[in-house]
Write a structure and sequence with these properties.
CATH class of the largest domain: Alpha Beta
Strand order of the largest sheet: 14-13-12-11-7-10-9-8-15
Distance between the termini: 19 Å
Strand content: 15-25%
Largest sheet: 9 strands, mixed
Oligomer: single chain
Number of helices: 14
Radius of gyration: 21 Å
Number of domains: 2
């Protein structure tokens, strides 16, 4: 049986069915009431796990979202990352007259692979997850089971079993009245919201093709220090290992892919074919990820998505989406439509990173939790489908991708555990799992 492409209606129907089944079995009595205990005013205790650049930024944005938000606990795999990130958060909070909202004493600072467990044990109301994506399924699952609201950076998994695990956690979150807000920040940008609305209303007629680029430069690398185990070395440089990052088609280019699906009304492509490889980042220190992908996504209605991403220095760059329809075309980042229905977004857009947190915490206090689970899972799977197509050299369908049994992320308990074998995929030789 062919699995139908996901839509918002099907996701809500599945959620209602799960909730109904739980009620019939009597298990709903153990779930949190539909109206969160956080409705109205009062202090919200926030925890963060993963206090790097994006994590420390999210912590500041959570503090700035409401005067009664308190950063209460923090954890990271590494002590230096934890302390450096928290120092930055504390300084920024102080510069914005919010130092009193930074309340993370030594006894609520945790280091290690079990940092999430320790943060959740402090009684936080909300947790911000900004660790390497491979850890995300386990972390989202644990937070929701604990009854804690979640902000999760993208992507939410590096393999299909991980996506399915997050799908289940998001359904449980909906039953519990918990918010799950995604770090796919383009969805919180006012200009992109406006142009997507216009496109969905038919401003360029029927959409024939979407061209999305995330063509940029190379990112950081942390040199190995004495005493690091192999697992520590890889987690420190998580960008370069597919089991941790999903490769850059998932870790970075997912923003573009999510935009493409959003423009299509959150209908996801039926299949993908792709080219990719390593031309420049060939040193073994760069793990097993590619440095470029070029993917064609196929929708059931005939729309094609042409997607390109590259991380190479000294090259032409472009980060944007372009939409072509029967009555015009659109430049998404310029918020411009040209054709039969000319239009341009003229208002000033908010900072999208801050908007994510403003809307999340306003919703919590209003008793109307936000659940971004549907699109954050499906856009992650869209990226994984593209990666699978490039790694294998095969055309991969949505159903194949969703049902894949390939597990990249192991269960880790100690820094002496061995990471997965590091092999670079070779199209035509690497097999679909």
């Amino acid at each position: 049986m062919t699995r139908k492409q996901p839509s918002r209606r099907s996701f809500l129907k599945t959620t209602a069915t799960v909730a109904g089944g739980a009620a019939a079995s009597g298990s709903l009595g153990a779930l949190r009431a539909a109206t969160p205990v956080h409705q109205g005013g009062g202090e919200l205790k926030i925890g963060i796990v993963g206090v790097g650049g994006r994590g420390s930024g999210a912590a500041v944005q959570a503090i700035m979202a409401h005067r009664e938000n308190v950063l209460y606990a923090a954890g990271d795999a590494f002590a230096d990352r934890l302390e450096g990130g928290l120092a930055s958060v504390e300084k920024t909070a102080a510069n914005n007259q919010r130092k009193d909202q930074f309340q993370v004493p030594r006894e609520r600072r945790f280091v290690g692979l079990d940092a999430l467990d320790q943060v959740l044990a402090t009684g936080v109301d909300v947790v911000l997850l900004a660790t390497p994506p491979g850890f995300r399924p386990m972390q989202i699952e644990k937070a929701v089971q604990k009854g804690v609201h979640v902000f999760a950076e993208k992507p939410v998994a590096t393999d299909a079993p991980g996506v399915r695990r997050v799908e289940a956690a998001c359904r449980l979150a909906r039953q519990k009245g918990l918010s799950v807000v995604s770090g796919l920040c383009y969805r919180y940008h006012d200009g992109r919201r406006a142009i997507v609305k216009k496109l969905q209303e038919g401003a360029v007629g029927d959409i024939l093709a979407i061209h999305g680029n995330y063509i940029t430069g190379e990112l950081w690398f942390r040199n190995v220090e004495k005493g690091w185990s192999e697992l520590q070395r890889q987690v420190r440089n998580w960008l370069y290992y597919t089991w941790l990052s999903g490769d850059h088609i998932a870790e970075q280019h997912i923003h573009t892919l999510d935009m493409m699906a959003w423009i299509k009304g959150d209908v996801y492509p039926a299949a993908a074919s792709s080219l990719g490889g390593r031309q420049k980042r060939t040193d073994p220190k760069f793990g097993n990820v590619y440095d470029h992908f070029s993917t064609v996504f196929e929708w059931q209605d005939g729309t094609k998505g042409f997607s390109n991403c590259r991380q190479q220095n000294g090259c032409w760059r472009d980060v944007n989406e372009y939409v072509y329809g029967t009555e015009g075309k659109a430049n998404v980042f310029r918020h411009l439509i040209a054709g039969k229905h000319d239009w341009r977004f003229a208002d000033r857009a908010r900072n999208m990173y801050q908007a994510e947190h403003d809307e999340m915490f306003a919703a919590l206090r209003a008793g109307r939790p936000i659940n971004n689970g549907e699109y954050m899972c499906n856009s992650t799977l869209m990226a994984i489908m593209g990666r699978m197509a490039a790694y294998t050299g095969q055309r991969i369908t949505w159903q194949q991708a969703h049902d894949s049994k390939e597990v990249l992320m192991p269960e880790l308990t100690s820094w002496q555990d061995q990471p997965p074998k590091c092999e670079v995929a070779i199209p035509g030789i690497t097999r679909f799992g």
